[in-house]
Amino acid sequence: MTDPAPASRKRDPRVDVLRGLALLIIFIDHIPNNAPALITPHNLGFSDAAELFVLFAGYSATVAYGGLFRRAGVPETLKRIAMRCLRIYVFQAGLLLATLLIVRAWMDATGLVPRFGVAPLLQMGLWSGLWRGLLLNALPNYLDILPLYIVLLAAFPLYYAGIRRSVWAVLSLSGLVWVLANLDPALNLPNAAADDGWYFNPFAWQFLFAIGMALAVMVAAGDGLLPRRAWLTAACWAYLAVSLFQAVPWDVFGLPDMRPFEMAVPDKARVSPLRLLHILALIYLLFGSPVLHRLATSPRLRPLEWCGRHSLEVFALGCLAALIGRISYRTFGPSWPLQVSVNLGGLAAMIALAWFLDRRARLSAAP
Known about the structure:
The protein is mainly alpha-helical and 367 residues long. It is built from 14 helices and no strands.
């Protein structure tokens, strides 16, 4: 069979721009009582930046490693995937250690006790909590998406072998696992920091990863765009509109409640059907539009592209910046001057790091 990712050497600027935007949003959302979070995607619809991040992980893995199986061979490609998994793990371990030490020092200096995050690990004892965290047996809030990424990337060769034969067969099997994870909460990996397992249930979130892989194949086959159908486009816009009215926190803005239905917030841990439909509708509109294709190459969006291109490093810095924000708000209160400083400082630091890494990469690649 022909390679499902024939353009595997070329990056898709749309993915880098959207993933860069998702990273900046994740930083904002990781700070409780943060005013800018009122207008981030989780308050504008059923899904949020995390779904984009994982879906694009599948897309990028297909683009990066799909054609590599043919060009470099299976052993070399598996080696590169393993090294990438190891690199992600090193970042996870560094973030965990830094977070535990920073929070422990903050506790000693202020006498305040964390309410969530690494609190369960610290209750185990600093070194015991660190050890269990390094074994991925205890995943604290805000530091639980990279372990998911490791698991999904490790499974990528198996998914890719199936996609080379039938995209729809892989999506069907992956979707079945997602259904089972939604029907049975016990289908999860253990997490000593929470009673109900990994917050990002890998048996559910793997479906988004597989969808991202399928998206890469379909986009490559369609000259960069998904096929447009007027009825499907209208249905997607209608669904996004309903979810917008349903998700907006009207009371926070002092407005009348305009929600069409009374319902609980769709479950994120297992990617509930409403969340899945929302991200699918959004992706269909984005990747079926030539407008995004043009915008993604605009110099004005270059900072987002830098962030998406160096997502691991930018994500790690965003986690630490958000930690400083959470500690600052808890210690001094979320005053407006402090919120402005934390958000602008964190966003500027992430973009500056992305610019530095991109510039260094371009200089090293120059003849």
